[in-house]
Write a structure and sequence with these properties.
The protein has about 350 residues and is an alpha/beta fold. It contains 12 helices and 10 strands. It has helices at about 25-35, 40, 110, 115-120, 155-170, 185-195, 215-230, 235, 240-245, 250, 280-310, 325-345, and strands at about 10-15, 55, 65-70, 80-85, 90-95, 125-130, 175-180, 200-205, 260-265, 315. Strands 2-1-3-4-6-5-7-8-9-10 form a 10-stranded mixed beta sheet, with helices on both faces. Mean pLDDT is about 85; it is low at about 1-10, about 10-25, about 25-30 and about 30-60.
């Protein structure tokens, strides 16, 4: 397997596909506790296995339609990226970021939702990076020292430099992109767009944690990251250091001025996709309700912050819905037109 510039990429064999969010502190405290629960965190972490695909080195081309798995070189080693090419070979791309328990084999947007079907006939490439569990898609200053991690996460570098440079070899623009994410990926999507305005023309956050310097939030994140695989939040950024504040949408909000944004969080009340029929199902639903309530508090605070700055964004606060994939699928569809408008990918 050979890694280098986009002129000589390594691909995993292509597969064609068909058209296929006094009382505020109490809520934060509740959220800090429930983030520790493994089953709740596992809502964004299904367990579907996939067969290992064969590998070959293709001739570089400008693709139009279809699906491929790419292996992209990075400072972290080769990163798998799932790609659904723009239906007519256009240069726009939509980056879809995973949640806290992102898996090492597939990005959950590719199988927990109908994201690929939603955009199958649109002139935009879907870019779904695989991995980054508990990373917040940022550059850490050290490997996690509690779980034996060998590599220092450098996800911002990968998503803003290495990956777009690689995709440019396939006709995907470095400057005509949108980025969306759920939960952990929601705050990361806003951060990437804020610090790389030349790359991203749109950002979306679904059930994101957008006020991570609020009382209790760092410890809530600490507990969740430990549960997700003994990742140490202190290896990501020291408490309230410049690196930590740089990650907080509430802090970097002024840098989002002029960016089209879609931001949502539901009430946490059970909705149409919450129909538990067992004790485990009831437990999962209860945790998903609390996680979404915490996201809602964060997202409402962020809305006030943007309003105080005079920065417009489209907000959506469904009356029902928990911290789970089918609701995020619906939010992606609700923001689809904004994504296509911002990138000119109709």
């Amino acid at each position: 397997m050979r890694f280098g510039r986009a002129a000589a990429p390594t691909r995993i064999k292509s597969v064609r596909r068909g058209a296929p969010r006094g009382w505020r502190n109490r809520i934060l405290a509740v959220g800090a506790a429930v983030l520790a629960l493994p089953i709740a965190a596992g809502l964004a972490t299904p367990t579907v296995a996939t067969a290992a695909p064969s590998v070959h080195t293709p001739v570089l081309r400008s693709p139009a339609g279809g699906y491929e798995d790419l292996m992209v070189p990075s400072s972290m080693g080769p990163i798998k990226v799932q790609v659904q090419w723009a239906s007519r070979g256009g240069n726009a791309a939509l980056y879809l970021l995973d949640g806290l328990r992102a898996r090492d084999d597939r990005n959950a947007w590719s199988f927990e939702t109908n994201a690929m079907q939603q955009f199958a006939n649109d002139n935009i490439t879907l870019v779904m990076p695989v991995g980054g569990q508990a990373s917040f898609y940022t550059d850490w200053y050290a490997p996690s020292n509690l779980n034996g991690q060998k590599t220092t996460y450098k996800w911002e570098t990968f998503l803003s430099k290495e990956l777009p440079a690689f995709l440019e070899g396939y006709g995907v623009s470095r400057n005509n992109n949108a980025v969306i994410g759920l939960s952990m990926g929601g705050s990361a999507a806003l951060a990437l767009a804020a610090y790389h305005r030349d790359q991203f023309k749109f950002a979306g956050s679904y059930s994101g944690y957008l006020n991570i310097s609020a009382p209790g939030m760092r410890e809530a994140i600490r507990i969740a990251m430990l549960d997700a695989g003994r990742f140490n939040v202190d290896s990501m950024a020291a408490p309230w250091s410049p690196a930590w504040l740089r990650m907080d949408p509430f802090v970097f909000a002024p840098q989002l001025r002029g960016l089209p944004m879609y931001i949502s969080a539901a009430s946490g009340l059970p909705g149409q996709f919450d129909q538990p029929n067992s004790a485990v199902g009831l437990f999962n639903t209860g945790n998903a309700m609390a996680l979404e309530a915490l996201s809602l508090v964060n997202t409402r605070a962020f809305q006030v912050r943007l309003n105080s700055l005079g920065i417009p964004a489209r907000f959506d606060f469904p009356a029902a819905g928990t911290h789970s994939w089918k609701y995020w699928e619906g939010e992606l569809f609700a923001s689809r037109n904004m994504i296509l408008d911002a990138t000119g990918a109709w």
